[in-house]
Amino acid sequence: MSCEHLELDGDGQHFEALVVSHEFAGKGRVQRQQHVYATLKEKLATGELHAISFKTLTPDEWSTQRG
Predict the structure, then answer these.
(1) Which of 10, 24, 27, 56 could make an SS bond with 31 (beta carbons 3.0 to 4.6 A apart)?
(2) How many CB atoms neighbour CB 59 within 10 A?
(3) Which residues 6+ apart lie within 8 Å of 32 measured at CB?
(4) Count of the separate structural domains present in the chain
(5) The domain spanning residue 49 has which CATH number?
(6) What b/e readout covers 16-40, taking b as 16+ CB neighbours within 10 angstroms?
(7) Single pTM value for the model
(8) Can you give the residue range of the structural domain that contains 20?
């Protein structure tokens, strides 16, 4: 997955992420989440990654939020 910006915080199995990607353009919140989960599918299936919460933004949305 192509990301313009990624912030990640966690303890090795539980993570919080901010994902900024052009790939989210024109997609709703659920579609964006599905896209990220599809990217992480193998890590989740093997248990290497137990839990993740994330915020998904396009570069324009990220720029606006940063002010």
Answers:
(1) 27
(2) 15
(3) 24, 56
(4) 1
(5) 3.30.300.90
(6) ebbbbbebbeeeeeeebbebbeeeb
(7) 0.85
(8) 5-66
